[in-house]
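Notes from hallway chat w/ T.B., transcribed later so I don't forget. T.B. wanted the structure written out for a chain they're using in a teaching module, and asked if we could keep both sequence and C-alpha cells in one place. Agreed to drop them here.
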Amino acid sequence: MKFKSRKDLLNTSIIILTIIFLITIVPFIWLDSDIVPTEKFIGSFVIILISAFLAWIYLGTIYTLTDEEIKIKSGPIKFKIKIENISEIIVNTTLWVGWKPATALNGIIIKYNRFDEIYISPNTNELFVKEIIKKKSHIKVTYKK
C-alpha cells in the first residue's frame, strides 16, 4: 500500500520560498560584470540543481508498505525498514533532530532496531499505523496530543 507524504503550510512555505530565493539570485549573477562567464554558468547551474533537488524531495516523498518492510522514497533517497525490527510507533508528534523524510509536522516517529528512529508524515497517520499493526500486532503504539 502506498502513502503519499502529507504537506503542511509551514514546510510548503519554507520549500517554495527557498526555491524562489535561489532562483532570483540567478539574474543577479548574470548581471554582475565582475564575475567571469564560466563562474556565472557554474553558479547558476548549482543554484538550479539545488532548487530542483528540493522540489524533487518535496514532490517525490512516498512511503510504500509491503508485508515485510516500509519502503521510504524521498526524492533520490531510498530507504527500507523491516517491519519485524519496529519496536515502537509514536503518532502525532514531530522529530526535531534526526532523519526526516517528511513534508509535514505531526507525523509518525518509527523506532526500529535498537537505537534507530525515523520521522515520516503519511497522508493519514491512523491508516498507516493500522496497516502496520495488521502485519505485526505487538508493536507499541503511543499517541501524542
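Follow-up for T.B.: The chain is about 40% helix and 30% strand. Might be a good example for the class.
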